[in-house]
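Pipeline run #58 for the internal structure catalog. This entry was flagged by the ingest filter as a single-chain record with no existing model, so it goes straight to prediction. Upstream metadata was stripped on purpose; only the residue string is passed forward. Reviewer on rotation: M.T. Logging verbosity set to normal.
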Amino acid sequence: MSSVSSKTRIVLADDHPVVLGGVRNLIVAEPDLEVVGEATTGSAALKLIKDKQPDIAIIDISMPECNGVVLARRLAEECPSVCILVLTFYEDQSYVRQALEHGVRGYLLKRSAAENLIMAIRAVLVGGLYIDPAVADRMFVANTRAGATLGLSAREAEVLKLVARGHSNKEIAGELDISAKSVETYKARGVEKLGLTTRADIVRYAARQGWLLGC
């Protein structure tokens, strides 16, 4: 009986051969990761990912024939078990939001790949979300201000952000130097204002707001 590989299977999609080579080298240096296919166009990537059914697909946004946002939407519909990680030059918040809305689990800048790619892969593998720190920092500043227009106080926004990152009430209380009861009060007020009911709702909201940073 043939043995089944225990390695995490990854497909790469990027129209720049140099980028493909660099990303491949980072991945194969990890003993538990392997590249099972590569594509240089969006349509070829869709076919390859549907055929290989990898654990993770790492895709660029700007690709010929089918861009990464469209590809992510197609994959969410046709290959929902595949985790999508975007690796791109684009730092615009609109691209991040579009990607997250279409089921992308990670958004990493190419200039950060050498330092953060493996971390991002491992984050999405365990069900987390990874947003490149350079992008997330700017989005958090902008959206903290935007939170005020939704009626959230600064403290309510802080608490919900930490809840979305998986912190317990006790951990949040320690970080913000408030009581656990106050944490629950701020959380309750925040979710009521936003019309959220479950922790999954909070995580989705936080992802759209750019509050998640490699959690």
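catalog note: The beta strands are 8-13, 33-39, 56-59, 83-88, 106-109, 130-131.
catalog note: Residues 8-131 form a domain with the Rossmann fold fold (CATH 3.40.50.2300).
status: ready for reviewer M.T.
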